[in-house]
Amino acid sequence: MARLTAAGLAFSELIIAVFRVNGLALAAGDRLAEPSGLTSARWQVLGVVDHGPATVAEVARTMGLRRQSVQQTADALARKGFVDYVDNPADRRASLIALTRAGRRALRAVEARHAAWASRLAARVDLDKLRATVAALDDAATLLRSPPPPRARRRRKD
């Protein structure tokens, strides 16, 4: 069995902590979004299209999710009247998701609750530690996006 280096163990612990925090963050996001008729996933999609209409594929790439899951979320948002599908002048086959007035209202309400919640929690954590954590997570994301270096080949003894 391969052994982890000290750095490899620390990186593995970081990934496990991210999984744990992700679950907690999604649950907290659901609580923040629920009064506006949203979930964390719906809130995230609205946040992306708040910057301008986008295709499902573009939203999926932005969020690092599968296109099919974003499609299901966008369809649910459309049924609730939070987004509309509009023509895409660049590609007739891929409609754009556009925020409606109701979607923008719901998003702003969630953002206000989020701002108060995040500020309350952040007041209990050292700002330099938060910034260092964000930098470490950005570094981890960069590493995870890049292809692994080629493994050294063992020479066969003939």
Automatic annotation (TrEMBL):
Gene3D superfamilies: Winged helix-like DNA-binding domain superfamily/Winged helix DNA-binding domain
InterPro entries: HTH_MarR-typ, MarR/SlyA-like, WH-like_DNA-bd_sf, WH_DNA-bd_sf
Superkingdom per UniProt: Bacteria
Residue span, HTH marR-type domain: 11-139
Name by which UniProt lists this protein: MarR family transcriptional regulator
Organism: Nannocystis radixulma
